[in-house]
Prior knowledge:
By secondary structure, this protein is of the alpha/beta class. The protein has helices at about 60-70, 80-85, 150-155, 175-185, 195-210; strands at about 10-15, 25, 30-35, 50, 75-80, 95, 105, 110-115, 125-130, 135-140, 160-165, 185-190, 215, 225. Strands 6-5-4-3-2-1-14 form a 7-stranded mixed sheet. Helix 3 (about 150-155) crosses helix 4 (about 175-185) and helix 4 (about 175-185) packs parallel to helix 5. The mean pLDDT is about 95.
Amino acid sequence: MSIGKNPSKNEILFVWFNRYAGVSIKTPSKTLVIDPVDVKPKDFKNVDAILVTHEHYDHLDQALVSDIHKQTLCVVVADPTSTRRLRNVIPSDKLREIQQGSEVKIGDVTIKAEKCNHPPASTPISFIITSEDGVKIFHTADSLPFPEMAIIGEKEKLDVVFCTVGIAPGTSPETGFEIARLTKPKVAVPYHTGSPADLKKFSELLKKEMPKVTCLIPEVGKIYQVSKRT
């Protein structure tokens, strides 16, 4: 989903474009697309980088990644397993493998790979994206909560955290809320579900237990703006 307008300084724009972890993020200078599946290549006109968290069908579509790359010449940053699957369709100079604890730069935007607690996947990662203005986004992929999230939250002072609340094994509104509780973001966004009840339950838990954290319940295809915490 292309985001036509540009965010202002100290802001990012994002669109949730499927029922899974598909998110497009626009900083003042770059456009990133995470885990594109169930969308058309033509929906992404300008892309600087595609990020892939793991190899499952609802996160990695090799043909789609290839088609987006061909029309945009973007960089593809992926976990080790997904990188192996993409080697035949993405040129080596545009494909970057990233492992937990490492980072890559896309211009002035930093992408860091963190742990992802999603046992069914082979080499899953989550992403911390830091815009050129210092806005910090934590895309947790299909992760269940894990204790180190508290350290990540304290260190990074996260502006946005995407919290899985359904579909993936073991996940629920309660596990999604626990991610928010551990990371303490400015804005918590429940995603990875087709159930309005999951989103509502997450919102209720957050409002009751963490009233100072903003809950942004996204609609698929709608553009949202988040500013840097002050």
